[in-house]
């Protein structure tokens, strides 16, 4: 079991890890983590205060155009290696509590957060089983039947995976198994988690440990989502490629003779996923948050805010067959600018 008064890593540990990542030195990063563990530093705190904290900074560097996608991916590979070192350390101790399935939702390829949650739960004595990235609902159902877990924990980093997370919630609660969700796609509170029918929500690895420990033994099936919004979300998902093509051909940033920026598809996909998230959860915040994110991307790449306002107009036009989605853009997009 984890200590009630864990020794946390100091800022010098974060700086040393960040320096190793900047040098693309996986060996140094892993050696640092192993040294911290040998010195008695809390494993969960290493995950949250060093590895995950550095990953957030790396994502910001990409967003600001300071890092390429390739460099960010290299940093993620180092983080995975460092997290595996922590996992090896904590798994030396046999589990003392029940079984928990830890997974990423279907279409969710960011496996690192789930790895961190899996490791954190193991430090608290849980017999955690990491199912990995992009787990399908069919596979989750099979694991629910085969392993009979006490709980399920799902990591969701991107808004586009919220629909798949809802299917996880339906599968888990239909079996009576409580489910905790978390990750950037859920935001800074439990509003979206509750709307999707999750039993609990966690902001980070520490929160996941606490949430899992407080779950009820059995839960009822999740209640249905509002029918009209859920139906339009399904239609929006079906028409995703067509709408992206319409945006690409109509937005001045991508419709001219010059090559479009390498982040154009990220912009289109993130906007549509944000709208989808609002339809699923009733929480309007993903759209203005995405608008602010798009504005930051454009401005750091030499564009003006005018192209972001233009994108909102183009999106509203492209969503003419989806009235709820169009209204979401027209009502909430500008709030982020």
UniProtKB/TrEMBL annotation:
**Family annotation (PROSITE patterns):** B12_BINDING
Q: From which organism does this entry originate?
A: Mycolicibacterium chubuense (strain NBB4)
GO MF terms, alphabetically ordered: cobalamin binding; metal ion binding
InterPro entries noted in UniProt: Cbl-bd_cap (IPR003759), Cobalamin-bd (IPR006158), Cobalamin-bd_sf (IPR036724), Meth_synthase_dom (IPR036594)
Recorded hits in CDD domains, A to Z, give: B12-binding_like (cd02065)
**Superkingdom of source:** Bacteria
Q: What name does the UniProt record give this protein?
A: Putative cobalamin binding protein
Gene3D superfamilies given in the database record: Cobalamin-binding domain, Methionine synthase domain
